[in-house]
């Protein structure tokens, strides 16, 4: 047993040495270690991403060996990202671009023009690792499931025709810790292939992250197991995977991407749904004007609470990370749905 401990200590020291060489800046110390990677000096591996949840994963796995750029600035809504010529150049110069096709059309275009599309050597398209499905939830607009708020088979395609046209698949995989963990694994694989020298560090970072996400999943399962109400009424349809994972049904005021003012007919439908299903809390988002949600709440006597889809860091989440915001979301849901 003592020898095993010695081994563990030795393994822990190696990444630290590699780290010291990597960030040292004067390029003299690490020429021996760097070996086949053609970057003998301080320039860290640059990863370009388009949204905070991807940025956070890349940073957690890459640690000090990577420089992660998020093209969506904190407080901005990522769905309608627009890229400046400088941003396009950043995509072109990246050592790795990690993106989700369909989430941000401008980034899709830049990846195609600058990096040869999803199959490019320095590109990781993460949607294929996330097991994306058609939007899940109750499609009250079409009328076929307005009265079955507890029908969790609603993920069989009901949601696909509910009036938004932002692609066929729900991109919001990060709100489901299990899907998020799968994507973390894909990022680790790609990063390890591109930077073999630091692969062991990435593996260590991944296993710590996986543990945290597994714990988070367990806490959501336990925390949402017994709720008085399982219908969640949200501002935009970001919470379908979360709802599906934990036995909830999502009704979104707008579609997969926030789209400005919904029409009065839609607001009336949601209002009817809230009354019919005794929904007591309407969820708003930090980056969406809460006026419509507040109108529905006032008309029905429901309260409002902020549920964060974690698409960007915002004023209210500044200084927190994904895990902390998810835990705040869990508390908000437990309160809003009457969970015990
Ligand atoms: Zn969204």
UniProtKB/TrEMBL annotation:
Keywords: Signal, Transport. The keyword Signal applies. PROSITE patterns: PROKAR_LIPOPROTEIN (PS51257). Residues 145-165 have a biased composition (Basic and acidic residues). It comes from the Bacteria. SUPFAM superfamilies: Helical backbone' metal receptor. Residues 1-20 form the signal peptide. GO terms for biological process: metal ion transport. GO terms for molecular function: metal ion binding. Belongs to the bacterial solute-binding protein 9 family. This is Putative metal ABC transporter substrate-binding protein. It comes from Kineosphaera limosa NBRC 100340.
């Amino acid at each position: 047993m003592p020898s095993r401990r010695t081994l563990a200590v030795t393994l822990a020291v190696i990444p630290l040495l590699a780290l010291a060489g990597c960030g040292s800046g004067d390029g003299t110390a690490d020429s021996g270690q760097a070996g086949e990677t053609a970057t003998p000096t301080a320039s860290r591996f640059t990863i370009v991403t388009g949204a905070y949840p991807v940025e956070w994963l890349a940073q957690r796995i890459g640690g000090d060996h990577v420089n992660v750029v998020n093209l969506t600035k904190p407080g901005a809504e990522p769905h309608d990202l627009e890229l400046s010529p400088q941003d396009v150049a950043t995509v072109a110069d990246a050592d790795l671009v990690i993106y989700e096709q369909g989430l941000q059309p401008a980034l899709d275009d830049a990846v195609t023009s600058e990096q040869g599309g999803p199959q490019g050597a320095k590109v990781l398209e993460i949607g294929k690792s996330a097991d994306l499905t058609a939007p899940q939830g109750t499609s009250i607009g079409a009328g076929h499931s307005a009265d079955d708020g507890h029908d969790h088979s609603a993920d069989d395609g009901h949601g696909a025709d509910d009036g938004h046209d932002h692609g066929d698949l729900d991109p919001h995989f990060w709100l489901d810790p299990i899907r998020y963990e799968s994507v973390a694994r894909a990022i680790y694989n790609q990063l390890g292939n591109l930077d073999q020298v630091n692969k062991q560090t990435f593996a260590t970072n991944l296993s710590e992250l996986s543990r945290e996400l597994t714990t988070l999943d367990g806490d959501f399962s336990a925390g949402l197991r017994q709720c008085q109400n399982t219908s969640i009424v949200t501002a935009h349809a970001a919470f379908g995977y979360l709802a599906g994972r934990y036995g909830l049904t999502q009704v979104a005021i707008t579609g997969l991407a926030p789209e400005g003012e919904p029409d009065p007919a839609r607001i009336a439908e949601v209002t009817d749904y809230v009354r019919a299903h005794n929904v007591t809390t309407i969820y708003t988002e930090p980056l969406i004007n809460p006026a419509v949600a507040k109108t529905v709440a006032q008309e029905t006597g429901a309260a409002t609470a902020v549920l964060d889809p974690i698409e960007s860091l915002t004023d209210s989440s500044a200084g927190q990370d994904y895990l902390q915001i998810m835990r705040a979301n869990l508390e908000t849901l437990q309160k809003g749905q009457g969970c015990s």
